[in-house]
Amino acid sequence: MVANPTSQAGTPSYDEILRRVGPLLVAALGAFMLYRSWRKWPDLLVDFGQQLYLAWQMSEGRNLYEDLVCNYGPLAPYANAWAFECFGASFMTLVGLNLAVFLGIAFFTYRLLLRIGTPLSALVSGVLLMLVFAFSQLSQTGNYNYATPYENSLTIGLLPSLAALWLALRHLDGGRGLLRIGLCLGLAFLTKPEVFLAGAAGVFASLATASWSECWDRARVIRTLGRTLLGTAIPILAAWALMSTAMGTSTALSGTLGSWPALFGSGASELLFYRRGMGFDDLGSKLLGVTLTSGLWLLVGAVAVVSGVGVAKLPGSLRWPAALLAAVLVTILASQAFDVLDWHKAARPLQFLMLAVAALALRQVFLRRGGQSGPSDPETSRHHLARLAYATFAGVLLLKMVLNIRVYHYGFVLAMPAAMVASTAFVAWLPQWAQKRAGHRVTSAAIGLAMLAGFSQSMWKVSDYELGLKKTTVGEDANRMLADDRAHFVNPTLALIERLQPKTMVVFPEGSILNFLTRCPNPTSFYNFMPTGYAIFGEHRILESLRKTPPDVIVLVEKDTSEFGYRYFGTEYAAETMKWVRQNFVQAGLFGNQPLRNQQFGIEVLQRRR
């Protein structure tokens, strides 16, 4: 709960000062992290180039879903293409759009954090958002940040999903906005399933629980459901109708549905990459890891509470010094522990925390409805509903990596809301609980802050190292980016392609950023040839497209795809495709090692036989 807005007449309270200053501090830190990572956000060859290429080709007049395959809903590709048409087809144009989306995500996240915690916990969580999730690089592969996300359908979908949740809670305050809630959910539906499901679950949890606890009549329940569903349907039907003017209605319908058909109707979900990502590849080991990590965090919580109770027994003059000393000691221990232990796995128990938070919030709502928790206070009830809704939202996002939760990789989006809940628990809820049991709230909060500081500095070190490897420039002007040592092979490849002046080009198995930087389009509707694409579309369809419209140049880029269960393109999968390549193309240049053989990086450029 939030303290009184003023401590004395006309004098702002501590909480009120934090409400005013907190957003500015978070924004300043975000600006610093953006500057620190400037132009180093993407991976040079993996994933992000597909978004650049797709948006560029759409801005050039090619139709999504007909001329260009796409596994996701239409909202993000059309937004990207619109940005290119308005501001020019460049790397920085797409970065600008993504940063605008992130501003919205940060705004709604902060507003929701104020609803579930205190101004201090919202500030701390905001700092965690900027330090760990916003623009960091926590693995060798870039793209897992909000400036150049590996797939900005995820981040663009997260924005309306968060907005829907916020509007749902606002609706419970004032009784308006049901249509807007639905509109936001409909927009999220047009991106990726995971963000839509999370938003829908959070909205349902808040409205359904409120209808039960406040004893809504049947007419209000029907009105609430009807208007929300109507609002959800509007963007979906509008997208179908608009796309039907440029393509067949069945193709438009398939595009509007986005990932849902592929989610249930292809073999992509059975690939090792996705099973490992969810933690199902080694179930026993993952369950043991989750259990051990959960025990460690429970120990931290116990230390925070016990320390708070112990300090509370000291004379008043010694409590603040003791709290400061405890925080310093824990910070030192945490910093050392994060360096020694495998702390990138620290997020593994988040799903249990979301379940616990949702269950406790639901219990409080039930108790207040039954009058067992004192007289019903609307503000307190809304506070518990907000906790329930946000924990439900965050918990559903975690389902894609349920036994392998991490803050790196997909975690920059999928684990971010849950991490915000965990931060709030350590800084606000646990100290409040300790205080009710005669504990010193400041001490408990200080220990929680110390652990979060240790975690953040550990992630900072990882990101600082990875970003430090990016020193070489690729591209020019608005397309300029900084990359790792692979740039020494990519730059001469780009130079050779410029000399060859092909009209069309295909890059295997991935690297469509080369198409974008050379402004050399792929003549087929495909632009990614990883195992996922072959699982969804099938080799026969891809190979027929290549035979029908063969490119002038083919580029083979080193890529070990063992994470999908197939080590190399052309041998363990796409063998017929590689056979066709070798029969019809000859080498025009080789930079580094022969690719797709022995994990030694190299790029081979091939010309079509005359």
Could you characterize what this model shows?
It is a single chain. The chain has 610 residues and is mainly α. Helices cover 64% and strands 6% of the residues. It has 24 helices and 8 strands. It has helices at 14-36, 48-59, 75-87, 91-116, 119-134, 152-174, 178-189, 193-213, 218-244, 249-257, 260-265, 272-278, 283-312, 316-340, 350-369, 378-397, 411-414, 416-436, 441-468, 487-500, 513-518, 531-537, 539-548, 575-584, and strands at 6-8, 11-12, 472-474, 481-483, 505-508, 553-557, 585-592, 602-608. A hairpin with a 2-residue loop joins strand 1 (6-8) and strand 2 (11-12). Helix 5 runs antiparallel to helix 18 (416-436) and helix 13 (283-312) packs antiparallel against helix 14 (316-340).
Strand order of the largest sheet: 5-6-8-7
Strand content is: 5-15%
How much is the average pLDDT?
89
How many β strands by DSSP?
8
Uncertain parts = 1-6
The biggest beta sheet, please? Answer: 4 strands, mixed
State the end-to-end CA separation.
75 Å
